[in-house]
Design a protein that fits this description.
Six copies of one chain form a homohexamer.
Chain A: E1 3-7, E2 11-15, E3 27-33, H1 35-45, E4 49-56, H2 60-71, E5 79-81, E6 88-92, E7 101-105, H3 121-125, E8 130-134, H4 137-140, H5 142-157, E9 161-165, H6 179-187, E10 192-194, H7 197-204, H8 211-221, E11 227-235, E12 241-248, E13 253-255, E14 259-261, H9 270-284, H10 287-301, H11 313-320
Parallel strand pairs in A: 1-4, 1-8, 2-6, 4-5, 8-9, 9-10, 10-11
Antiparallel strand pairs in A: 2-3, 6-7, 11-12, 12-13, 12-14
Helix pairs in contact in A: 1-9, 7-8, 9-10, 10-11
Chain lengths: 329, 329, 329, 329, 329, 329
């Protein structure tokens, strides 16, 4: 049984039901999610030991967030209670030609105040096989950036593999640092990067002609780096997308099949399901199987409401095999 | 800031949830809507000053109907309290090969009793740029027909542009008059007609070979008439339609792109969103931009539950530009 | 007015709302359904006198199941109260590449204990034109197998036509008998079989090269047999299927058009709607019309939530005619 | 098994959920009910054969109303399809010092158009033991008044007992007749009257000093009259009432115990449950037991949402015995 | 028609349904409310012209908050769009011995950033009869304290009556000032104070032996002060309270009757309903009638879900008269 | 931090919403609960380490049951996956004079098949301070009776305190043994018995004149027995109860105050909350404080929907102190 550590903020997700607009809502569906914990949740479903490092306010909603992780089988021993708010995001699910909308309300969260000193690193990383971070954490606060850097360094010291979903978001990075001042040091300690051309450009403050140039540069720059991966999504409408993925090593590249998705049930967290699939795949499978498993996970997530891929290993494998869709009795 | 007057009945809309049939419903979703007020609501979202002329019973459901207009930013100063019922329509949303169904229950409504004498025309039309009516009002009662005729005449006196959605419905017109006895006089004072071949035939009691002949006749017959427009819809199923639109002047014609719509969230009010888009476009844009904006509005409405297009100017423009569909953070 | 008898178990159907997974559900939608009673419900909507033979526990949920049949217009005079449980099935509706899932929990049901002696056969079959059974009943218990055999024998004695939906399910047949020990005797008294190659193979314990060989064999083997029919379904995903149907007599074959179904609202009971359509068709229409009516029924069911096709004759005919999909006012 | 005929209008009941005001509602709970059919429903639960005479529009909502009666075990053979609307009432449930509110919207209903000629009286009354009417029917239309008068006359011819809940409502009686022009003829053929002092005064156009004088007069005036009964309700608030009942014959009087009711779940239909209990009691029990059973029924109804008392004989008897309230496992 | 200005923050209210705990919630009911706007909403229901001064973020949830005020008939011309968050409060409704809980999450709201310079005071106060503030606003930020002080000064210059609900809350006042440094200057310009002994002690930084001493001191200290009022609540449990009120002038005192409240539907906003009733009463009625009307308003609010008293003048008067509770048809 | 082991069945709880009857339900609220796990859940809220021993089917609903325990903070390491069903109970919540109803459907559950051999007793009991069982387990199957006996014996060997809620239920005990053949051996190893006179009579097959005689006998008979406790409940109606509790040692007795409960939100699990409070109290407090804490827990549970008391230590203490009921901000 492999052990994977994830670190990142968990937010309250508040969403009008069905296809209602914010203006029409009389109630909001309540869930909890966050990019990295979503990765942990998918892995926990597949029999991996998942442990999440984060911080929450001590009030009932903070407790509910932790309870939701526990319910999904995530070890919450390192979910600290700290002063601050519970970050929130409001999600309006789009349809047809109407885009989905997210209003973030996450300033001043407890997670943004979590510091290196709060964590018992030795105990946290004991027996771990993998550590996963995303580019959202270093964008939130200096403290969270420090925490992420420390985590990848400590992981490397212990021979733990590290993955990072670069995921550059321009509307974060409000605390005074720019992305390229922070990210390279974290990337240095990362073995798997999930990133596209634009992510590399922003994180490295450098222009690339195409993804190939960017990935070549990254493999040269970061000696630890073994894998780069990203998905290609065509967005015909908010309801209809197609998606496929690629995985690169220094010398090889692998490609998944493409999935046609219509009508999409929930678009959020599909990248996290993909990342989880990739981690699972690289821990247990060949590269080609890994990218196939990852993309099947990511495709499957489009059918599951909420932030997390709540699907078993068998269900992902069934999608991989192209045999899903019939009623299973 | 332009000012647009709409006049017409507002009904209670009662609808089984999701795809339930009437026979299965244990509750009905409650909203309020009416063709012309729907036009006003869309315009109010776009920064237009919208004012609706109508009548409602004084009881709590009548008050709720007025409150719903107010919420959408419509000026309800000319929403009168009169004896009578609150007209109701029951909507069962179809899916796949099952058609949507509407049961109307609107006889004896307060609106059907609203008369010319109830209205302070001077105050109503003060500062107005546009007046919009539909063919439903003159079909409801003699009183409502008189009201519509009076409104367009008063508008014309003051140089206010007038649009009419002819929208012939054979199951209305129960009060003893035939459509062609009433409509020509109203059409005479109308600058923009939203109408197809069949609408012209019924309103004018005359056969035409095709839409072209009908529109040519209309331009000759009605000297005020500047624009004729209509949409073309292909109905593959209740879930899947395509739609495009055309706009004609005496000398020119303009065509929007076609939108593929699957799965449709709410088909009702899409014509009203289109009409609102056209009014907005003809007030602010070139003819080609107007038909593009109008059809983007109409297409977008298929994704919004309820009678009204609750979308901002930016959202319609995004659809026009063909760039919608991604998550907006 | 034709009279059709159906016999079989009615279960409680418990289903997470919308596209939720079992793990996410905080409530379950409650309905009642069972293959044969579903057939009766559809027929009752079309003006047929439908009577269902079954058994239920006497507690409130058993009463609710009977009341649900009564609501759908089924005569419940032969719905007995017996010791035992109310069989239950839990349905998770799939979407996209995620399959639908059914968890059955039907052991020890009152229906499984219904015996030949409980039934007044004379009164039950009085004036009946048709009797319908499915392969699920003989798979549940020896008692239910005996009941089915007795029913078809008694029907034949009285010149009542008999249809059977062979519907072989490997996870039933737990009571010690194998399918081929039981089914042939029941098939002998059946005039219409709804079955594919695999159904014939299992029921007759015999391999066939293709459907044609199987159906030829069946026509030879069973002298009463007049019609064989089955549907062909392509499952692109849980959301998207296409479906068509065929009907065979000894000398002729008939084919329906194919329906494209996306997005599917409720896949359960579509075979029962098809069977009901076939029974109706063979009672009132020509063979070609029958298979057209049957497939229109089956296609239409994909749009109706729940187990039963709650649609009128006119609605099925509208689908047959290819003219459905517009709003009906 | 006794057979009881009820006659009257069945309406759609639309109600905001929980304690919401009409102004807050985004959906309305949908049920069907009507004073006399409510009586039939309670009786059907107790093993009585209940048959309801009424008329409904032929559309889906009319069909749903009939289906709801069928579900409750009422024979709907004499529920006719006629032109007209489905009468509706909107119910806002009060709480504490806020009164419950009903908005009636029942003009032009199919029931108001049901005439003597529509009914096969011989077949309707065959084998009946009791006929129940209420003062609402004669107040709706001349046609409904004639129907009620005809029904009680035909019942009397056949020796069928007749009960009437006088239930005077001043906001009905809009069709040109006054209550005292119509009611005496109907009362003449009635054996059990549920009525208070004010009901007698209005129906007979006569002042009485107190209930005693009124009832004495009624016993003298109407030779068929055997029983008079009414409840006494103290309304401390919309949430808290107490209630007891009395039953009078020419020579005796009987009194139930008083029930303390807080918090009331649903106040509507409690009088109908009481009437049903009285009919059941007078058909099967002694007068004292009858009034006890009736008041237990009426009290119990305050705990059941909707118009009808959906409770078994055993449940009413448990309340009569004063032993209810514990969890029954 | 009187015109009343209210000023204060409007928050999103998110609340688990029925009696669920935060830990159990899968959705939260969404409403908008704030002490002072709640006062305005009640007054608008009674035919008063209500205008609210506040600020909101420009995103969809801010727009929804403004729309909710508009729906309730409040003039929102002075609801500004400013940077910042939409303040939120999470409400868990208690029951029996379990207290209700509120989690505030209102730091950094747009309202807290609204400054004197944002407001056109001349236009705001034109034609106003009354201005209402509460002690929450000066507790939020220096800017909001300045705004409140400016508002009462400007009101006084124009002879507009001013009321203030002192409402001291210890967990606010985080911006560096203490309550007694800010409040006296605002109180100086206030004619009606809703306050108890503790409010006076905190605001004036002074101990009093009892309410009488406090109010005597206040009448001496503040020359404009004409009325002091407060309610007395006995809290037997979260479900069961009793409440009454008193009104004092320099020379007289008035007392309302006491209301017994069980079970309470919604406790929030009952003080605001009371304040609204008092303002209405002092504008239109005698002092005794005013306190009676005010307490009837406050009592009635316990029965209405949400923050606002959505009741008509007639409904409050009915409660005052002690005649409420029966079904109104 | 104390560690408490609980053992017993966890069932799916399916319940019509609000006060609906089973016959009215269109959906059922889904939760999970069981007497002993409910005890563990309350203890987990109070910072106790709770571990539950049970068995579940491996399908998604079994997984959901385990996840629900995990969410409440219960250690589920000893929740085994075994063949069998997930036991279910259907709960209809009563009101006023209508009793609550439970339909059990628990035969053949996985728990009923859990055997001594499945459990690693050494690991289970390591470091435990307390073990709790109830009389339901030994009533389900021979296997579950053996398991319970083994558990209390193993606990005693290790000096772990044992509590048992005798909870005799006549409709269980279907597997061939009588209660008095099984229980004495389990009671011998129990230090705290929650039991009334009838429980002792049934378990010991012996008549007692009153509770005193029964408890005296028990203290004599069972040498390990240190405490006996029970609650006294007066059931005025399903909505209104009063409750108090007593605790006895060989030489002393303690009495809690009485709580008045109206209207009750959820009656189920109140005995379990009381038992949890008693265990917590006897582990941390004096006997008088223990019975006070226990009854406060039990009273508080009446306000919380679902099976478990989801309340913090502070909330119970607030109830104990008599100061609860106000809004906590």
């Amino acid at each position: 049984m492999k052990k994977v550590i994830t670190l990142g903020e968990v937010m309250m997700r508040l969403s009008p039901p069905a296809h209602q607009r914010f203006l029409q809502a009389t109630y909001l569906e309540l869930e909890f999610g966050g990019s990295e914990a979503n990765v942990g949740a998918a892995l926990a479903n597949w029999g991996t030991q998942a442990l999440h490092l984060s911080a929450f306010p001590s009030h009932e909603l903070g407790q509910a967030a932790i309870a939701s992780l526990r319910r999904m089988g995530i070890n919450t021993e390192f979910c600290y209670s700290l002063a601050g708010r519970l970050g929130t995001y409001f999600l309006e699910k789009g349809a047809l030609h109407r885009s989905s909308k997210i209003i973030y309300d996450r300033e001043g969260s407890s997670f943004s105040k979590l510091s290196i000193e709060n964590v018992d690193w030795e105990k946290l990383l004991e027996g771990a096989d993998w550590l996963h971070w995303s580019g959202i954490s270093p964008a939130i606060s200096q403290s969270a950036a420090d925490l992420t850097r420390k985590a990848v360094q400590e992981a490397n010291k212990r021979g733990i593999k590290v993955s990072g979903d670069l995921n550059y978001r321009s509307n974060l990075w409000q605390y005074g640092k720019q992305v390229h001042e922070i990210m390279p040091e974290i990337m240095e300690n990362t073995h798997l990067m999930i990133a596209g051309k634009r992510d590399f450009e922003q994180c490295l403050n450098k222009s690339f002609q195409d993804f190939k140039e960017a990935s070549t540069f990254a493999f040269q720059q970061f000696k630890q780096l073994k894998w780069i991966s990203h998905t290609n999504r065509n967005t015909y409408s908010a309801s209809h997308n197609t998606i496929s993925a690629r995985l690169f090593t220094l010398s090889e590249s692998f490609r998944s099949k493409s999935y046609d998705l219509n009508p999409i049930i929930d678009r959020v967290g599909t990248g996290d399901a993909y990342a989880a699939g990739l981690i699972y795949g690289l821990l247990h499978l060949s590269p080609q199987e890994a990218i196939d498993f990852a993309m099947a996970s990511g495709a499957l997530k489009h059918s599951v409401p909420g932030d997390q891929l709540l699907c078993s290993l068998e269900e992902v494998q069934e999608v991989m095999s192209g045999k899903s869709g019939k009623i299973k009795r």
